[in-house]
Amino acid sequence: MPSDFIVPAEHTGARLDRYLASQLSDLSRTRVQELIRSGLVLVDGHAAKDSLRLKGGERISVDAQPRPPLQAKAEAIPLEVLYEDEDVIVIHKPAGMIVHAGAGKAEGTLVNALLGRGQSLSRGGDALRPGIVHRLDRETSGAILVAKNDFAHAKLSDDFRQRNVKKTYVALVHGTLKGEQGSIDFAIARDPHRRIRMTARPASKTGRSGKSRAALTDWRILARFRATTLVEVTLHSGRTHQIRVHFSALKHPIVGDTLYGAPEQLRIGKASLALPHRNFLHAVRLGFAQPRTATWIDTIAPLPAELLEFLHAVAAAEGAERAAIDGVIAPYL
Question: In angstroms, what CA-CA distances link 301 with 97, 146, 294, 305?
């Protein structure tokens, strides 16, 4: 439905997308940006960028057309297969790839890539998520398990609910963690103020609202640096953004994860390192029982080159020997 605005003087200097998101309560900022980039927002009769700084007095016209329906579609996108049999396939998902269509994003997904290789997938989920029994965040790389048929989907879904699937991650977090290992037992809920984030608090302080869900994360130290700590992380539940929000709640956000409070650069003494264009979080190991035979299968997704190179840069900036770092991370390569 078309909407027209005259920008009040008090909004001078505001970004176009943020101003419109504050005025159009039924549209998210993401949807506002999509409309702007599709030429459906005009400023004084002309298309504009979402980052446009307003001066006050502009006439803005918004044609808030509904999104076209999303659908999973085959795309020719290369995939790295870690394991495959007649029931399941394990993929090494790269950072930047979303698992399935959603929030207006329908291209370049893992599901589309699987369909593009002629892959048969279970229909145990909805039409946008064939084969998907769990997910990884867009900027998290690593092993993800996919069901090829409904029998496997049902069995794996039950295994995830019973916490019989073993998921191990490697993360680089800001600061120095106390001790050599530990557990984070914080319940997780949607952030009421920023819906794209989650929040975490100790289980004893969640009250009885029912909105928070129990979540348990174990960690152990792999290597310590002056400004960061490399950890191996094991999940005992699978909440949205669990590792990211748990370490943020400890005031040790994951390197690169600005959504959860990480700085935009890493300072080591007087030096400043450019961060990789992603979060330093990688799903390195996935273990599960084959749905039909119950044979235990362990898969390893080697640490991506950009994360390995960043670790080497951190070590070099701190005067650590590269060989020592390579010895620590050898099991993940």
Answer: 16, 15, 22, 12
Model confidence over 280-318: pLDDT tens digits?
A: 999 999 999 999 999 999 999 999 999 999 999 998 888
How far apart CA 247 and CA 215 sit, in angstroms, is 12
Q: How far apart are CA 332 and CA 303, in angstroms?
A: 6
| Residue 328 burial (C-beta neighbours within 10 Å; 0-12, 13-18, 19+) | middle
Instruction: Give 208's pLDDT tier (boundaries 50, 70, 90).
Output: very low
Confidence of residue 70 (pLDDT cuts 50, 70, 90): low
Q: What is the DSSP string of 150-205?
A: HHHHHHHHHHHHTT-SEEEEEEEEES--SSSEEEE-EEEEE-SS-TT-EEEEEGGG
State percent of the chain over pLDDT 70: 95
Domains and CATH numbers, the chain: 2-63 (3.10.290.10), 80-161 (3.30.2350.10), 166-287+299-332 (3.30.2350.10)
Stretch 158-172: mean pLDDT: 96
- Residue 289 DSSP one-character state: E
Between helix 29-37 and helix 16-23 the angle, nearest 10°, is: 120
- Cα angle value 220/199/228 (rounded, 5°): 35
Our separate counts of H helices and E strands in the chain read 7, 17
d(CA 242, CA 264): 21
Residue 8: per-residue pLDDT: 93
pLDDT at 209 over 50: no
Structure tokens at 53: 């700084």
- The residues near 328 (Cβ < 8 Å, ≥ 6 apart) are 222, 223, 230
Q: What is the pLDDT of residues 46-62, one digit of tens each?
A: 999 988 999 999 999 99
Rounded Cα gap, residues 70 and 111, in angstroms: 13
pLDDT tens-digit map of 191-200:
888 878 899 9
Task: For the beta carbon of residue 64, count every other beta carbon within 10 angstroms.
Answer: 16
C-alpha span between 66 and 223 (Å, rounded): 49
Residues annotated as part of the active site: 137
